[in-house]
Amino acid sequence: MNLVSTAAQDTETLEPTTGPQGGGAQFWVAFAVLTVTYAVAAFLEGHKFVWFDELCTFYIARAPSLTTLWHWTLKYDNNPPTVYLLARLSMKIFGPGALGLRLPSILEFYAGSMGMLLYLRRKVGTPIAVFGVAMLWASGTFYYAIEARVYALVFMSFSFLLLSWDTATRSQSRKLALFGVAASNAVLLSAHVFAPLCLYPFLAAEVVRYLRRRKPDYPLYAALVLPMAIMALYIPLILVYRGLMFWPTYRASLHRAGDFYFVAWDWVARPLCVILLLAIVWPRLRPDRNKGSQFVPEDWAVFLCIMINPLLLNLVLMTRHASFFDRYTISTYGVIYGGLAVLIGLRLQFRPAMAYAAALIMLFVLVRYAHRNWVARPRSDDQVGLATLRPDLPIVAGDGMTFIEMSYHEPLDVLRRLYYIKNRAAAIQYEHSNYFYDFEAPDDMQRAGFPISGTVEPYSEFVASHPRFLIYADPWEWLPRKLQDDGATFTLLRDFAGENFSEPGTISFPNPAVSTGTPYLETHIFLVTMPPKK
What we know:
- It is a single chain.
- The protein has 534 residues and is mainly alpha-helical.
- It is 57% helix and 6% strand.
- It is built from 23 helices and six strands.
- It has helices spanning 24-45, 52-61, 66-77, 82-94, 98-124, 126-138, 151-168, 175-189, 196-213, 218-225, 234-239, 254-281, 297-307, 309-318, 330-347, 352-376, 400-409, 412-415, 424-431, 435-438, 442-448, 459-465, 478-485; strands spanning 395-397, 418-422, 455-458, 468-472, 489-495, 524-529.
- It has a six-stranded mixed beta sheet.
- The longest helix is centred in the middle third of the chain and has 28 residues, at 254-281.
- The radius of gyration is 26 Å and the shape is globular.
């Protein structure tokens, strides 16, 4: 790769903002195509099921007062209040439906993608920049564009911070860029407790930049460091997690860190193979020389640090036996796909026609996945048909997540029969987790004022008064295992996963993109008969 170095420039001045940006008309046509494609994909994906995490955002954002919103945030969801305030404002304007709830994330992810587009355009030109953004959207990362959570906000603020920081380090007139650095940094740090993982790469890059220039940049240091005072908000949020035991399946580990990188590649591997084959068999789309890029050493420092964030976070969370999910390091996805586009585009010497062809392939993959999900994925108005399934018996949700989701989605005649039964010792014994007991306990949330329907009872009281009942659960969960040890017999009424209850080791979670018939995590409905009382 032919990198254009600016290390020999005068160290007494800032580097000018120059680079292979591409023609104006070409950029605006590409921008319009990206925007229309994004709108279509967002519309199709927007019909997906409103699930547990989004319902936490929904309920907290609709708290009776801002004081209550803050208290609920501290106790039940442990994010800084920014995401709930944005959702609250959106639902006041657009109504308390899925659109009003998700619109902030839809706009944030789009804005973050455009920020990444402008940054890559400055470095490698419009065609490869468009290819990078299209690859990001074709990956599973697009899921967070339609997720009423904080992750799109993290991605947007990181992208704007990257763009503003790059401008501030290369422009002579940079007051606006410095303000952009400070503002983006403030939004980033007020979005999520893991947001500092997106900030430290810029601090590391400034060390590299100082070693290259031998001149401190105090205004930029201030714009990066002063907003860190917002991190004081994290203290009460982190304290809530003391004593919380997460499910072993999701606990941080080196294996889960490796999975992050594998999944990132797996999402785009097949369309990339098509693109590479096209580049080989269509050599006329490649020029005779490589025009290079405008990356400097501090740019690579940012990219490298962001790339290792999943590994670093897993190492930190391993010390607390906490869970790791890929969304915690969503900004790494932007760097992975932007970096892949740069690497492939420059190494194979893509001409604009080849880069745009690659981008169109990725956009086709995005719309295809979105359309498939729109057709096949259970949507918010889908129900499992519980209303007519043994209407004389109570229905027990085997998991707190499913209980809260059913409370929101199911009709009134189901909610009258809906129960969640608790046994903290059994949950710890069988699932090694106290998640819905010491954190986000449904009965505690009901007492706090969350509009959650259904009844919560202790396990012993419920089984003593209900000799027969339905459970909506899966065999590996604590409830059916506890019931089985207590002598209950099971009759399988519905099996949405097509698996065999007698072989629990063979059961796996269904793919939500192709699962039909149930929008919930659980895929089995059992009729449970308790043994006769002695």
